[in-house]
């Protein structure tokens, strides 16, 4: 029986997958952003990108074809496979799947998605982004986000460590002290769905370095935009950005170094919470929101008996993970 080497098999399988699935295509023209009148806002592509024609059917067919070709590389007339051929074929199939997934991941991360914003919204978004990532180096992208974001996340870790130092493990909050930032463009469309009156109060529960608060203050008119942050190190960082923000103009802002469970939100019009890692404490706090107020929650659904879902908006930016924004009306 003719032997098929591992290296030849892998080469053959990879070549067949790429040839049959048409993985490498020329860039296609950019797609214009568009808005949606439905309850869910769709993502759009801003710039040219490599199109991946890797639909499930073609990919499976390619891998099946690879297996058939491997069968042909034998002089055995009996319809049987020995253990060696089965093992090599399995390696080839898994290698092909790994190559497909790697290529898909790379191309998805290369895509730039954009929401349709008004000129005023875009100007506000650009101003806040420039405030937090002022240099070209800060705006450079890494696997974890912009260089500026990576720096702020590292600062958040230091702030958490400072808080934890000398405390009993039973007193320490760990899992709920997770640093994340919402993209100002995403916040813009969420606020648009919340439809603020122009004279209410905005709260960010767990405001971190203050990015969402300052973005909200620039995107809409408020009596005041308030950020509540538990970690002292992050609160100080937010206050620093607030000082720079005042030169840009916008609604009045305030940052509180407090546990949000201790804050009275009975005067809130819009409440924002990046609640992916929050404990049930956030539900208890939101339960005190006044009737008629709107709650913007990321990746956390609220009790339907207390809150009416107005809109669901998805943000496809990130490492292959969709972030869902929910806009609720407090009943």
Quick structural overview:
This protein is α/β, with parallel strands linked by helices and 331 residues long. 41% of the residues lie in helices and 16% in strands. Helix 4 (119-132) runs antiparallel to helix 8.
Task: Explain how this protein is built.
An 8-stranded mixed sheet has the order 1-11-12-10-9-6-7-8, with helices on one face. A two-stranded antiparallel ribbon has the order 2-3. A two-stranded antiparallel ribbon has the order 4-5. It is an alpha/beta fold and 331 residues long. It is globular. Helices cover 41% and strands 16% of the residues. The protein is built from 10 helices and 12 strands. The N terminus is likely disordered.
This entry's quaternary arrangement is single chain
Spatially, the strands of the biggest sheet line up as 1-11-12-10-9-6-7-8
Uncertain parts: 1-57, 69-79, 100-111
Helix percentage range? 40-55%
Class from helix and strand fractions: alpha/beta
Shape: globular
User: Average pLDDT across residues?
Assistant: 76
- First-residue to last-residue Cα separation: 75 Å
Strand content: 15-25%
Rg (CA only): 26 Å
Secondary-structure topology with pairs:
Layout: H1 6-21, E1 40-41, E2 44-45, H2 56-72, H3 83-110, E3 113-114, H4 119-132, H5 136-139, E4 141-142, E5 145-146, H6 147-164, H7 184-194, E6 201-205, H8 211-219, E7 224-229, H9 232-245, E8 253-257, E9 270-273, H10 281-286, E10 294-298, E11 307-315, E12 323-330
Parallel strand pairs: 1-11, 6-7, 6-9, 7-8, 9-10
Antiparallel strand pairs: 2-3, 4-5, 10-12, 11-12
Helix pairs in contact: 1-2, 1-3, 2-3, 4-8, 7-8
